Amino acid sequence: MLLTTGGLPGLFEREVLFFGGKGGVGKTTCAAATALAASRAGRKVLLVSTDPAHSTSDIFERPIGPEPVPLLPNLWGLEIDAATESARYVREVKDRVRVLFGHSILKEAYKQIDLAASMPGAEEVALFDRMGGLIRGEDTRFDLIVFDTAPTGHTLRLVKMPELMDAWIRALTRSRRAMLGVEGDDKEDPILVSLRDRFDRLQTLRARLMSGRTTAFVLVLIPERLPIEETARAIAQLDDTGVKVGGLVVNRVLPAETSDAFLQARRAQERVYLDEIAARFGTRPRIFLPQYPRDVYGLASLGPVAEAMAAAAGVSR
Ligand SMILES: Nc1ncnc2c1ncn2[C@@H]1O[C@H](COP(=O)(O)OP(=O)(O)OP(=O)(O)O)[C@@H](O)[C@H]1O
Ligand SMILES: [Mg+2]
Predict the structure, then answer these.
(1) Binding site membership of 55 for ligand 1 (Cβ less than 6 Å)
(2) Fewer CB near the terminus (10 Å): N or C of the chain?
(3) Does domain 4-81+143-163+214-313 sit in CATH 3.30.750.200?
């Protein structure tokens, strides 16, 4: 059973896909299935997990770490987390600062950096920095980056980050210029050059995030009350940020034909939610995935989900 409503055409042609949604609705399953299906369709795909729980390694039944590892032909996996990225970020900043400052103030500069790194939100910035590089397509081995994200709130904060960082970099640039007392030409000052560089990278990132041709956010939900509410909130926030909603995956839909009284009753309840989904998200492309008899774990059980995603994307094998 695969009830599609127009499917999610062109899904595999994007360069960046995010899978978001409430906890436990099937984000990891759908992200992994999509990555697998797109890799089978010939795209070079990197599946990135940003969720500290990292269940991609469970699905592919092998360890995945903070650098891309080959999983299958055309498919790589990567698991990144805030703490590791923060440590990497601090190392990189210290390396950069070492070039800029003399030995005498280096110790004090390092102390300031460590202090900044321990501030609330710093780890998130570091994680975002790593994601930013991936979104900008800096690793040219891949045509498509599929992000399996942590539950929605966290991810939407990341999507909003360019806006916040933009204001922050502008302010730093202004105060640095005021300090130097220069007009116009920033090329002489290494700090202004570095800020300019950050600013340019941020603009590229933003452009790629906001372009519907490059990036799409797929919202996964199940036909129940709270996931529907969370989806409505996420859509409103994404619309507000300017990131395109690529479509909805309504997961775990019960089989229509059943003689079992319990399942029939459950199905009737589900009908109410499916109607509500149609009423509230009628204009959004969406697909439905069935409730499978068992957990989706390992390649064998991921296969049918991957085929459903390929069919939805309009790719037949
Ligand atoms: N259609 C389905 N049929 C049967 N089991 C499913 C289906 N979709 C997902 N599952 C199972 O439900 C569980 C949760 O799915 P998954 O890990 O993909 O959700 P998630 O949204 O990534 O969760 P989390 O928020 O914890 O990261 C897993 O055990 C998965 O195998
Ligand atoms: Mg998950």
Answers:
(1) yes
(2) C
(3) no
